[in-house]
Automatic annotation (TrEMBL):
Residues that bear N6-(pyridoxal phosphate)lysine: K90
Any Pfam family the entry gives: PALP
Gene: trpB
Family membership: Belongs to the TrpB family.
Domain of life: Bacteria
Organism: Paenibacillus oryzisoli
The protein's name: Tryptophan synthase beta chain
GO terms for MF: tryptophan synthase activity
Alphabetized SUPFAM superfamilies for the sequence: Tryptophan synthase beta subunit-like PLP-dependent enzymes
Keywords of this entry: Amino-acid biosynthesis, Aromatic amino acid biosynthesis, Lyase, Pyridoxal phosphate, Tryptophan biosynthesis
Catalytic activity: (1S,2R)-1-C-(indol-3-yl)glycerol 3-phosphate + L-serine = D-glyceraldehyde 3-phosphate + L-tryptophan + H2O
Required co-factors: pyridoxal 5'-phosphate
This enzyme's EC code(s): 4.2.1.20
Ranges of residues in domain Tryptophan synthase beta chain-like PALP: 57-372
Amino acid sequence: MDQQLQQEGYFGEFGGSFVPPELQEVLNYLSEQFYKFRDDPEFKEELRYYLSEYVGRENPLTYAERLTKAWGGPKIYLKREDLNHTGAHKINNAIGQILLAKRMGAKRIIAETGAGQHGVATATACAMFNMDCVIYMGAEDTRRQALNVFRMELLGATVVPVHSGQGRLKDAVDAALDDLVRNYTNTFYLLGSAVGPHPFPTMVKHFQAIISEESKRQIVEKEGRLPDAVIACAGGGSNAIGAFAHYIDEPTVRLIGVEPDQAPSLTQGVPSIIHGFKCLVLLDEEGQPKKTYSIAAGLDYPGIGPEHSHLKVTGRGEYATVTNEEVLEAFQELSRTEGIIPALESAHAVAYAKKLAPTMGQDQIIIINLSGRGDKDVEQVYQMLK
Ligand SMILES: *Cc1c(COP(=O)(O)O)cnc(C)c1O
């Protein structure tokens, strides 16, 4: 890819930055600082230190022996992001961006959150680094996710309910961007997924790429070769792009992203601009971003990261959907066979792996990225199964 275009954050026709001029200035500065510190040896060492001592990396690549036997096909390995502190991959990115914020002299971190998972990861990292933390959340979402609001407050964050618009995630994003433009001299906007205007998708990928950096080393140690497929669930696409990153230039490795069949941005989306960047978006009849619904709150987003959009249209990435029933079954099967209760988001990847396994041979290998643990979802699954 053209160096200049890559600098501006384009992945083919996708990505870029479509924002008002005053916000563009803030993003240009962020971009410059990110490229400056990304490869700085001291910054890298500090990041490595906190990922090891606080997050608990590296996490294992577990051979799922019983699941492999039950499905009768390829060897199944699980990349255990569920074992990270706070129970998911989001903390990798939160720590990385906070360290960058510190270097940039920010005293205050802001973030948006839908269901609350990114808000909790951000509030956690802010507590550890003694940063002021303001989380914008749609008023409607604060009611539905009262326990996560309390978690963030326990961690010392201020949660601001956003009443404008429909009081949902989109309105929280707008409120956070507004805050950033007013307070950029001391404030850093910590974005939670591989979406948004440049440099966010590139930055989030950089901090999540640790997933495949580790899994590639681990699978070569265990099996002496690369996997045949890597499977991850895709909401905004951060755990998936992190799980794919170090395999993108390995053409023998299939990269498969899995979406809910009720929010299939990649399988049914069209190129469009949403939240300041271009990607495949699900639109309704009026050409507006479609209202999506997923049983997994983290996958409930009508767009998808620009790099996934590019991997999809170039054919390097494959994208599939699974139904709620398949997800619920996978949630229970992994719990029963391996003693691991997965997040409902991660159960999407497990559900698709189960469908793919019979088409592959016993000498082949699948890595499933287990993006998070399922404790947060147990009550919801209980209600759904009842
Ligand atoms: C937030 C979340 C996701 C979805 O976000 P991505 O950016 O697509 O990774 C997936 N799994 C878990 C456990 C999450 O918390």
